[in-house]
Amino acid sequence: MKVLRLGHRAGRDDRISTHVGLVARQYGAEEVVFCGQNDSGMMESLRDVDDRWGEGTDFRHSDSWRPEIREFNGFTAHLTMYGLSLDDEVDRLRSKNLDELQLVVGSEKVPREVYRHADLNLAVGHQPHSEIAALAVTLDRITGIKRGFDDAEIEVEPTDGEKRTRKP
Ligand code: SAM
Q1: Atom 7 in ligand 1: residue holding the nearest Cα
Q2: Best label site of 62, 79, 81, 99, fewest CB within 10 Å?
Q3: Beta-carbon count within 10 A of 153 CB
């Protein structure tokens, strides 16, 4: 599964784009691609999380969303409040092979062409909210949280007391 984040603005969107990356990773994305400004610092911090907490997700920048969507060999769902309801489309999404699924999330303004080139425009409710939340809800319905991250240096030791980590 691939996640495409549109329109990243270094400085303004660091936290939101980072959280898009973290959510995508948590749900098992193989690749997260950031369009907009090339923010090597943000990318490094995501790669650092992947290195320490278990590998599996590639993070990269792309100069343009066009080839990412047009040349993707699979099914592209663009998350937008104007789309078809997730409740109605979830079975169709679940029927796809995960390797062949691309989810697109926007930022401030999404070009009209993105709506046209997507195979599906998908709404998590028809109210404006957040790309992080929309991505998390969609992935939770499709895949559920990934278990088992390979080659982790550290992992959480689950506890209802003080926070703890351990080496796997
Ligand atoms: N008004 C903007 C536009 O041009 O569509 C949306 C801005 S919103 C803060 C940023 C992103 O969050 C959107 O591009 C979309 O990917 C996601 N998003 C926001 N509300 C959503 C909803 N109800 N369903 C699905 N995705 C949503």
Answers
A1: 108
A2: 99
A3: 11
